[in-house]
Amino acid sequence: MPFVILLLAVLALIGLISWAKVHPFLAFLLVSLGIGVALGLPTPKLLAAVSQGLGETLGSVLIVIVLGAMLGKIVAESGAAQQIAAALIAAFGTRYIQWTLMVVGFIIGIPLFYNVGFVLMIPLIFSVVYKYRLPAVFVGLPMLAALSVMHGFLPPHPSPTALVAQFHADLGLTFCYGLLIAVPAIILAGPVYAQTLRHIVAAPLAGFVADTRPESALPGRLNSFLSSLLPVLLLAPVLGLQAVLPADTAAASVLTFLAEPVVVMLLAVGVATISLGIRQGRSLAAVMDAYSASVKDVALILLIIGGAGAFKQVLVASGISGAIAAGLLDTGVPPLLLGWLIAAAIRVSLGSATIAGLTAAGVMLPTMAQSHANPNLMVLSIGAGSLLLSHFNDAGFWLFKEYFNLSVRDTLRSWTVMETIVSVVGLAGVLLLDWLLPLL
C-alpha cells in the first residue's frame, strides 16, 4: 500500500505540473499535504513536517545557490565570459573550434547557471558560425553539452547542491568525482557525437549574433579566468591539504573552515566584486544592483527546492520512508542504479531536471540509511538520471530548437540524443567509480 500511495503522489505531481500547469512549488505543497492526509498523519504533525522540510532544505542550500547566482551574474555582465571565449578561440583557432567551445562551456558552466549560460553563449556560437561558415549544430552542441553536464552534476548549481545537502554528502568530494565523470560525458556527447551531425541544416536567426564588446571594455584575460574559476581554485588545494595533514592540528581546523561551500563562494564573490566590478569602473552600487537581479533569477528555483524538501519530510514523518526503503532494497537493484532510474523516469515524465533530481532524492533518501551506497556518488547518479531524454515537455528542448531554427526531427536527433548520451555516460562513470573507490 505505501508504494501505491507514493506512486499516486508522483503521478499527481506530474499531472499538476505537466497538464494542469500548476507552479511546481504549489504542486509540491499540495501533493505533500495530500500524501500526509492519505497516510493518516495528524494535522499538527503534517504541518510541522512541511515547515521543517522546507526550512531545513532551504537553510542548507540557499546561501550557496544565491552566492553562485551572484558570481555568475558578475562573470556574465563584466564581459569575463566573452574574454574567456575570445582567448581560447585565439589560442586554438578554428581547426579545433568544437573543442574550444566545449572548453569555454566547461569553464563558464562552473559559475553560470544553465539558463544564463545558454542565453549568454548562443550569440557567441552564432557569431562563430557566421564568421567561419560552419554548421551551427556541429559547432554549438559541444558547448551546450558542457553547460548541461555542469548543471546536472556539479555544485553550486541548484539541484546538485540540494542533493548534497539532502544526502549529507561531501561537497568537495562530490565536485571532484563529478569532474571525473563530466569530462568523458562532455567529450562523447559533444565533439564526438556532433561529428555525426555535420549535415543538419540549421539557419539560426541573425538577430542572435553577438554584439561583442570592444577589447578595451573587457576585463583582462588572466583576471577573467581567475575570477570565474576561483571557487575551483580555492577548493582544490584546500581538499588536497586536508588529505595529507593530520586532522587534529590547528591548520586542519582552518582548512575545514575554508572548505565550507559558503566560505568558498563568499570569498569568490568578494574577489569578483572587486576584480570584475569595481576595478572595471563600476560603482559598488551598480554591482549590488546586478546581484539583486541575480537573486530574482533564482527565487523560483529556491521555492521549488523548498517544496521538494517539504515532500521529502512528509515521507519521513509518516513512516512510509522506511517501508519504501525496505521495498526498494528487496528489489535487488543496486541503490545507485535505482536512483538513476527513478530520476530518469520523473525527468521523462516532467521534463524538469531540477524537479526530477529533487523528487528522486526524496524517494531514495530512506534507502540510503539502509544501504552502503556512497552518498557523493548517489548525488551524481541522480543528477545523471535527471538529464535523460529531454523531449517535448522540457523547456531546454524548445530553447535549442527555436534558437537554432531546427525541425522537431533534427532537434530530437541532436539535442535529445546528446542529453541521453550525457545521462548514460554519467551513470557508467558513477558505477565505475563505485567499483574503483574501494580498491584505492
UniProtKB/TrEMBL annotation:
TM spans (from-to): 30-50, 57-76, 96-122, 134-154, 174-194, 225-245, 257-278, 299-325, 337-365, 377-400, 420-437
Subcellular location field: Cell membrane
KW Endoplasmic reticulum (keyword) present: no
Membrane topology label: Multi-pass membrane protein
Domain of life, per lineage: Bacteria
Keywords attached to this entry: Cell membrane, Membrane, Transmembrane, Transmembrane helix, Transport
Classification via InterPro entries: Glcn_transporter
UniProt main location, coarse: membrane
NCBIfam families linked to this entry: gntP
Family that this chain belongs to: Belongs to the GntP permease family.
Protein's UniProt name: Gluconate:H+ symporter
Protein source organism: Hymenobacter cellulosivorans
